Amino acid sequence: MNIRKRFRLFINVVAMVAVLVLAKYLIHNFGFEFLETDIFFPSVVASAIFIIGFLLSSILPDYKESERMPAEIRTALEAIHDDADSFARRTPSVDMDGLRKILVGFVVALENGLGTKQKHSGLTDAIAEVDRLSGIFTQMEQLGMSPNFIVRLRSAQDVLRKCVYRIYYVQKMQFLPSVHVLIQTLVVATIFLLLFLQTEGSNGSAFVFGFVSYMFTYALHLIKVLEQPFRKQEHSVDDVSFFLLREFVDKIGHAQPAAPQHADTKATVQVLQSGTRPR
Predict the structure, then answer these.
(1) What is the domain range of residue 253?
(2) Which pLDDT value is given to residue 184?
(3) 213 within domain boundaries
(4) CA gap 129, 103 in Å, rounded
(5) pLDDT tens per residue across span 154-184
(6) What is the pLDDT of residues 221-278, one digit of tens each?
(7) 194 and 215 in contact (C-beta within 8 Å)?
(8) Distances 30 to 26, 150, 194, 203 between C-alpha atoms, Å
C-alpha cells in the first residue's frame, strides 16, 4: 500500500478545504460577511455532527459484514472443489474441467461486476455462474456420489448465493436516502453559515474554519466510500480486498487436475492472473 493510495481521499478533501478557505478569505476581505455570531449557531453545528455520526454508525456494521464475505466465499469454493476433486479421483468421468471453469468464471464475474464499468453493482453474471454449479452436482449424483456429499455441495452453493445476494444488495441499495439528503443539506448550510459568518480574520479563525470544513467534507466522502464496500478497479485502499479469491484461482490453476484441463479454463485462469490486481 503506497502513500499515494493511502492518502488519496485525504488529499482530495484537503484540496476542497483549501478552496473553501480561500473563498472565506476573499469573502472576509471584500466585506461580504453579513451573519453575526448567534447563540444558536453552535447548536446547528453540533446537530449536524450528531446526525452524521448516526449515519456512520449505521453504515459501519454493513462494512464489517462485507469484510467477512470473501472468507466465507473462499471457504465455500474450497469445499466445492475439494469434495468434487476427491470424488473425481475415484470417478474419472466427472467433469472437473467444467467445474474449475465455473469456479474461476465466478471469481472473474464477481470482480468484473464490482468494477467501474458496471457501477460496482453488476452481479448477474456471478449469480449465473453459481447457478451453473447445479448441473455439475446433478452429474455427480448420477455417477454415484454419496447423498451426504451432495448435501455438502448444495450447502456450499447456498453459501455462495447468500454472499453474492448480500453483496448485490449492499452495493445496489442506499441506506436511508432521505437521511442522505438531510446530511447533504446540513453540510452545505453549515459551510454556508461559516463562510458568511463575521470573523476577526485572524489565523486562528481561519484554522477553525478549515478544521470544521475538513470534518464535514471528509465525512461526506467517507459515507460514500462506506456505502459501497466493494469498489473494484478504482485503486482505493478502502474497498474490501479479494486477495483470498485470487489466491484460490492461483491454487486451482496450478493444481494437478483429475482430467486434462480444457484450453478455455486455462485461458480464464491466465486472464485473472495476468491482469492488474487491485485490492
Answers:
(1) 3-274
(2) 83
(3) yes
(4) 8
(5) 999 999 999 999 999 988 887 777 777 888 8
(6) 888 778 888 988 776 777 898 999 999 999 998 664 444 444 444 444 454 444 444 4
(7) no
(8) 6, 77, 16, 17
Please give the tally of structural domains in the chain: 1
Domain membership of residue 279 (yes or no) is no
236 occurs within a structural domain: yes
- The answer, as to whether pTM is greater than 0.85, is no
Asked if the structure places residue 53 within a domain, the reply is yes
Q: Which residue is associated with the grid cell 455462474?
A: 129
Residue with cell 492488474: 276
- Tell me the C-alpha distance between 25 and 192, whole Å: 14
3-state secondary structure the chain: CCHHHHCHHHHHHHHHHHHHHHHHHHHHHCCCCCECCCCCHHHHHHHHHHHHHHHHHHHHHHHHHHHHHHHHHHHHHHHHHHHHHHHHHHCCCCCHHHHHHHHHHHHHHHHHHCCHHHCCCCCHHHHHHHHHHHHHHHHHHHCCCCHHHHHHHHHHHHHHHHHHHHHHHHHHCCCCHHHHHHHHHHHHHHHHHHHHECCCCCHHHHHHHHHHHHHHHHHHHHHHHHHCCCCCCCCCCCCCCCHHHHHHHHHHHHCCCCCCCCHHHHHHHHHHHHCCCCC
Q: How far apart are CA 233 and CA 241, in angstroms?
A: 11
